[in-house]
Every structure is written in structure tokens, then in C-alpha cells.
Amino acid sequence: MQEVTIISLGGSIIAPGEVHPGLIKSTQIKSTLRTVYKGESSPSGSIPQWLKIIDIELLRDFTGAIKEYLENNNKKKVIIVTGGGAPARHYQQAYREIMGESSLPEQADWIGIAATRLNAQLLKAVFHPYCREEVVNDPTTVDHFSGRVLIAAGWKPGFSTDYDAVILAERFSAGVLINLSNIEMVYTDDPKTNPSATPIDKIDWNRFIGLIGEEWRPGKNVPFDPVAARRAGEIGLKVIVASGKDIENLKAILNGEMFRGTVIG
After folding, report:
1. Is the whole-model pTM more than 0.90?
2. Same domain as 94, residue 74
């Protein structure tokens, strides 16, 4: 029987809404810019807005690391659940500004879910032929897959992709879930606002929920969704919170080596 590794990949890693330093140096991107501007340099060396959404270089490194892991471990499979990232935030904000006080959380949630599914479709394409099945939009309907990689996206309002990943971990009997985002560790407080906040190597679920609160809302920026955290605690799941931008660290996690991150549970 093949062992399944579950990865919750934050939308901020797929579509951060900003330019990765490596992107500017990419020959392919420079060639594209010359085409866009008909052979002339872009204004002030800027990059068109449409090129700023996807972190191409990081995604290339991420997919390469996963493929290398699978090639070196024939009995392993990977499920990747994608978040919404910048597209979700921008479209949700546009909806709220248009609708004002009449905006509905459920509608904002559906917009975010659509963004996760777009990101998932991209991941499915780049993992061909490792990924054979269609993107999973309902984690309660799948219990096997024939390929080496399965891609999943947002399910329904009220549930984050972290929650979807927990459900999949339970269905595939995975003891550990790797949560990759722009947050490299859990801290005692928000380090952006509290300079005294310190990183935590290991924490139990009750203490973790006490740190982040119990309420979840679309776009909430926490290391792991509190609704998913409660479910993970109930089923005895361990979650590793780590940076999705550190590919070498990801390789260490996959290979059971020392890594930088926080173990919850």
C-alpha cells in the first residue's frame, strides 16, 4: 500500500501578488516583456501587472522538489490542497467595495473558493503526468487515486482549504499534514506587531487555538485555520507549519530530516 503525504499549499505561495526576485532575472520573462512592449524596454523597468500574480520560479522549484521526492520514493503519493492567494483577496475586496454593507460573507467565501480552484487547475497541469485525476472540490468524495499526485481545492463556504486538507488526511490515514505558507513558524504573538514574540518549536492543539482564536472568516491570516485545528485535534493529526518559500527545508521535511518549522499536536 502506498503512503500518502498531505500538503496544504497556501495561496500566498502560488499567487502572492508580488514579484519573486528570481522572476525578474528569468530569461523567459524578459523575452515575454520584449514581446509585450514590441522590442522596447518596459516603462521604468516595470513588470506588467499580469506577470506579478504567479510566482513562477518558486512554483517551478516546488514542483521539482515534489517530483524528485516521488522518483526517490516509489511507494509514496502526494495530495496537494491549494489556497486562493492574491486573486482571492483582490476579488473578495472588490466584491466588498462594490456591495458595501450589503456584502455577504458566504458570497465572499465562494469567490475565494473559485480562486483556489484556478490555482489547483494550474498545479494539476504542471504535475502532468503524475496527476491523472481531475481536481477534487469535495474532500469527502475521494478515498483513492491512480496517479502519484492528487490536487484538491476549496470545498464550500465556512470551510478553508486547511480544513479540506485535514479531511483528506483523515480519509487517507495520514498521520502528518504539511502546511506551507508565508508563515515559517508559529509565534507566541504576531511578530509584526510584537518584537518580543518568540517562535514555537512544538505546541499542542488547545494552546494553539488559544493563540489564534476560534473564529474563522474568509481571508483570515493565521498559521492554520481554527476550524481545521479543532478537527485535527479531534483525530490526533500532527501538522507541520513551515515556510513554503524554503524549498530545501521542504525537502528536509519530506525526507524526515531536521527542519525549521512548528509541529502542532
Report:
1. no
2. yes
